[in-house]
Every structure is written in C-alpha cells, then in structure tokens.
Amino acid sequence: MCAILGSISSNTVNNNDSFKLDLMKMSHRGPDHSSIWKSENNKVFLGHNRLSIIDLTSKAHQPMQDTSKNLVIVFNGEIYNFLEIRKILIQKGHIFNSNSDTEVILNSYKEWGYECLNKLNGAFAFSIFDKKKKLVFAARDRSGEKPFFYQQENKTFKFSSELKGLFSQNFSSCKIDYLSLDSYLTFGFIPGQECIFKGVKKLSPAHALIYNIDQNLLKVWKYWELPKYIEKKINKDFNEEDLHKEFSKLFKDAVQKQMISDVPIGILLSGGLDSSLITYFASKISKNIKTFNVSFEGHNNYDESKYARQISNYLKTDHIEINAAQASPEIMFKLAKQFDEPIADSSMIPTYLLSKEVKKYCSVAIGGDGSDELFGGYKHYNRLLWCDKYLSWIPKYIKKQIANKSSKFLPTGFKGLNWLQSLNTDLNNDLPIIGKFFDKSLRQKLIGYTLDAEDAESIWKSKIPLNKDLIERMTVMDFNNYLAEDILVKVDRSSMLNSLEIRAPFLDYRIIEFAFSKIPNYLKCNTAQRKIFLKKFGSRLLPKNFDLHRKQGFSIPLNSWIKSGKWRDMVHDVLLDKNCVFNKRIVEKIISNQDYGNNSERIFNLLIFELWSKEYKITI
Q1: Where in the chain is the domain with CATH 3.60.20.10?
Q2: Which residues are within 8 A (CB) of 598 and not within 5 positions of it... i.e. 6 or more apart?
Q3: Distance in angstroms between the alpha carbons of the first and the last residue of the chain
Q4: What is the pTM of this model?
Q5: Cβ atoms within 10 Å of 410's Cβ, excluding its own
Q6: Which residues contact residue 385 at a Cβ distance below 8 angstroms, ignoring those fewer than 6 apart?
Q7: Distance CA 166, CA 158 (A)
Q8: What CATH class is the domain 3-222?
Q9: pLDDT of 269-289, one tens digit each?
C-alpha cells in the first residue's frame, strides 16, 4: 500500500514546501519511493509515497500519467483482478508502459469513465486529475480497506491517506466536531463520512466523488450497494451442497488473486477457522507458503501457537513462530500519533506488534478480516437472538424500568450493564449499542457539554438498516460501521506504520455479495451457534480433530495490565493529570469501578484520546 496526497486549487500556489512536508509525514506508508507532480499553472499538486508490491521498476512510480499526458493518478491499494482487466484493455487498443495495476486503473478510466469502478476488484483509494475536463475523480473500495480524508475550503480541495497529511503545520488550529467526539466516546470510532475535525470528511466505503475545479463544486455518490438475500424455497430452489461448491470456487479464486505479488508474501495463521481456510486454499495454489503466528511473552492464555502449528503441519507450510516482546505502555504514544483520528480498540497494540515482526520476513500478509460480519461470527448475535426469542414476552414497561434503573444504580463497568440497558430496545426494527463505552449522561459529565439536537444515539439509529430479519440487520450494521470504521482502520494504520500490506480475501466483493445474497440467515447463526455455514464448509477441508468452535479474538490482557505496574502508572499519570481534558472526578470513579467489573476498554478509550489530544495540541 501507499500514501496519496492532493491539493487542487483555483488559485496559483507558488510555494510547495508545505506540500512536501505533508507528504513526508506519511513516509511510513511508502518508504520505497516518493514523488510530487504539479501542473504547469501551479494549481494542482499530487503526491505519492510508494510501497512497491507490483512491478518494482521505476515505470510503476507515481504520480503516473497516461500516454496522452491528460490524466494523472495517485493510487493507494491493490487491484486484484488487474491482469484480467489489462487483457481486455489491450484488446481494445490501450497501450501499457508498465506492468502495474496503477496503469490499469488509469486506462480503465479512459475506456469506461466513472463506470470503471464496477470493473475493479480490490482494496483501493485513488484520485485521477483529468486535465481536459478540469476535474478530480476519486473513489474508495467497497468495504473501506483503504482510507481517504478530504477537505473543501476557500476554493481548494485537498485529500490525503491520513488525516495528518491535510495540515501543513499541526492540528492546533483545528476545531473539534463535538458530534464526532460524542460518537467516539460512545462507539470507540466515528462512523460514516464525519471526522473528528470540523470541515474534514471521510469518503465513505463504496463511494466516489468528482471535484469540478472551475466551479468549485463537489459531487459525492455511492457506486455499490450490499445485495439483499432473496428467500428461496428449500429443496426446490435451494441446495446447501451447491452453496458449498460455489463458495469453494469463489474463495479459492479470491485467495489466488490476492497471492499475486512481486515481493515476499505470507499468511497470518492464528489457527482459527478463518485463517485456516485461507491457508488451506493458499497451500493448494502454491507450494512452500509462509505462515506466521505470533505469541506474546508471558501471556500463555493468549498464545494460539499450538492451533496454528496443527494447521501448518497438516498443510505442510513453511511456518514461522514469532515471540513478540511484551508491550510497554510507551507504545501508546506511537499509536496515538499514528491514529490521527483516534479509535478505541486495544487490539491495535497486538496488531501493531504483529505487523512489526512479520515485516522482517515479508512486505505482504494475508489475514481473515471480514468473516465475522459476512457469516455471523460475533457473540452478540447469539445473545440478541436469545433475547428476541426468550424475553419478548416481558411487557415493554417492565423492560424499560429495568433498563432505566440499571443505568441509574449500577456502576460503570458492571458486567452485563450494557445488556440490561438494551432491554428497552425493540428488536423488531431497532438494534441496541452493545459495545457502548459511555452512556449519554456520563459523556456529558466527562466533557462538560451537551448536544442540542443530534447525539451519538441518533447517529446510531439513522444507520440501522431497514431489514425485517434481525440477523441481516445485525450483520449489515456491523459491515457498514464496525468493520469499516474500527477493524479496517486498526489494520490499515497499524500495518502501514510498519510498511506492511495486509490483504483480506473475505473482503473480495464477490465473497461479500455471495454471503449477503445467497447464504440464508439460519446458516449464519442462531441462539447457540455462529458461522454455521462456514464451519460446515471448514469441516470438510480441515483436520478431523480441528476445533471449529474455538473463538479467540486478537487481544491482550489489558484488564490485568492496567491494574498494576507500568500500565497502571501511565493510566494514573495521564488521566489524573490536572490538564487532562476529561473531568478528573469522573475519571477517578471509572478507574475505581474497575474492581466491580471490567472498565479496561473504557479506560483505554479515554487514554488514547488524551494522548492524541496532547500529541496534536488539541483543545476541547
């Protein structure tokens, strides 16, 4: 992957030193080559930091122009079907100077215009400057694997792979968007197109934009939608065996496409179902594939090495076990700087450490992200289905009383508090915020502000899909929000800080469409089981004694860390400092309530934001 940066203005810019500095801030995303292109009238600047993956020659450097010199592209990502598209374009008379997927996008735009997006299968964020039409065309991939921030201000349009690229000096002059901050304190991320700073937006997944330079007009549209499941009559139109065959063919092809690389590539093998299936198909495609498993020193409960070793031995991979050093709290300063729009996901720590170690062996790694959202893998799916099935008889007014009184009398961090609060949710058309960090009352006390109209809860409700089926509603909601704004952000920033590209075959758009349009919801999950279809599929391919039901997220013992030692000291030093942006009395209570349950993720939420605000000199 790479870093892209652009500044397009109707006014002439005579000094491009600040642009160079902004590009340099993202050098970790592309350490192999850096270059800037500017228009003859000094109104358009495009910058690119390259991590070389496909076509390692200088012919593939960016910014890249087409043969007519009328188009210029900067591109971050990979187009996995670029060889197929390239053949079609050559047949249509297009000439190629490189073997890169970047040039395939460029010629695809020349051939099909904006409709080229329907041809692309990949993880991408790109921008094309069209000299003749005097416009900028940009787009982001369907699931949001690659980031794209933008800002339109004073007849200038800017875009960047990371938020830090938009600001020439620092963030100190930026103003916090309080609705976005409210979302952060509620969900741990900021959903949709909104950003932590006023005046800045994110291009949402599966969206494209056009910026008309002369008219200073911006148009944004969605070019792809999740398909809906069409009910089929069992034993007549539906055959589960056919589904297994179709998925096998699709997934093998998705893995094969994502194994194309001109640099060493490996597979992140946890020993769980998702990574084991990827490894199975990769082993059928190529011999001597490298697999990686990482354990963390001193924490055997989080060590999955024996499960990864079982799959490696079964499939005869070139397996590498890495013992990562125990995480020091100082790592938080590095991560707070990298996540320049903060997210509150403590698994960023092991993801960063994993990426750092794997980078020593290869520049591309394949992981299993996306499977839980597509095939029904999260625990809260079981629980909500159970609530819907067994608690629907309880009168609404009683549920409401339980929810209200639990919020009033139970301490923050009390185990099961979010579930008690969710009893007031109508599961016929609504969804509770199961992963809520802080409720509205506590958020107001922490920051000392109130929002007049919209708040995080109203944002949540506006994003709930209009699906009658509860399973479909849950999986679509998580795909559009949690996956895009938390999981994929965590993976992108943590891996790119180490100049490592991570690919996700489950997010091949054909797999996404297959899962949502063809897998019936009862084969995804029920009150007792999850990933039913995928487990049935895996049982045919993986060892007979393979534990299909084992589920362990990529996590760290954060709860025990912050109770003692250096991590506890950091928490107290940072969050109880007199200059902390949060209300000290409330923070003290949250920390002390750790004894009643588990407030570790809430504390992490506050810690990462406080370190971020200090790093970028942000005032609330």
Answers
A1: 3-222
A2: 413, 415, 559
A3: 34
A4: 0.95
A5: 17
A6: 470, 471, 525, 526, 527
A7: 7
A8: alpha beta
A9: 999 999 999 999 999 999 889
